[in-house]
Amino acid sequence: MFKSFLALLLCLLVLPAFAADLEPPSLERGEELWGKCRACHSLEPNGRNLVGPRLFGMFGRQAGSVADYRYSEVMKTSGVIWTDANLDAYLAATQDFMPGNKMYGGLAIAQDRADLLFWLKHKLGVK
Ligand code: HEC
User: Which pLDDT band holds residue 21 (cuts at 50, 70, 90)?
Assistant: First the structure.
């Protein structure tokens, strides 16, 4: 009980410190960062699956649910929903978030993730 109280206290103290560092997201920078993903992912509604699945419709979708893409077993059965928070955590450290999935890399810098996710939402027409 006391431990969870301490953990909560720590979160309350530390999280705002990180959040406060973020600038308002930039579409321009987000588009630039998409350059790190485009070799493996398409964005069009009927885009081809490349090394990775097409990402059209990814916000709010269940992980591993593009029907004609062959996911790893862990991704397919994870039950994860791609909320903003889960996408952020996945891109921050793909293998920590979902050990054994087939995607490596991602974006270590929080501002980069914020910019990219902002641009992706804009691009995919997600509010
Ligand atoms: C070298 C290829 C590669 C790059 C670069 C890459 N990905 Fe991936 N991505 C994959 C693969 C492969 C998977 C499928 C993972 C699995 O099945 O375990 C995946 C899965 C995903 C998923 C889950 C999709 C779903 O349908 O559940 C998201 C979201 C994602 N990638 C976003 C990104 C973003 C954003 C970037 C750029 C920062 C990126 N990826 C860069 C290969 C890549």
Answer: confident
